[in-house]
Amino acid sequence: MTISKYTSDNAHWIQFGDAEVFIGDVLTEENSKSMGGGFACFLPEASMTWSPSYDEAIIVLAGKFTVDSKDSSATAGPGEMIWVEAGTSVTFRAGREKVWLAFATYPLWGTTTETQANSSALRPVTSPPSD
């Protein structure tokens, strides 16, 4: 059995289009056979709309984070988690302060057909903006 520790410094960071949304992949096809995971940073008031074709658990580390769908909405703060079921069209959005998240997906989100189809919206960056 292997145990590994990762921090946001280990992440491969991307920016979602022109939105102030930064996703740092840590668990990728390079080191995981079954699930994806990493960190995300949303600058104040930033948002993105997405229709995940994978299940996703989002753990809020700092700030207030809201996920809206056609049928419901959930807002979480530090130490709380939001679950998004595959196939649910959602808008992810930050509140009035910078939001830091950890996330886990099944399967690896980067290998899904949906992510591949939208890859032009994902731009590599060195890191999210610093405080």
TrEMBL record:
It holds the Pfam family EutQ. InterPro entries: EutQ (IPR010424), RmlC-like_jellyroll (IPR014710), RmlC_Cupin_sf (IPR011051). It comes from the Bacteria. This is Ethanolamine utilization protein.
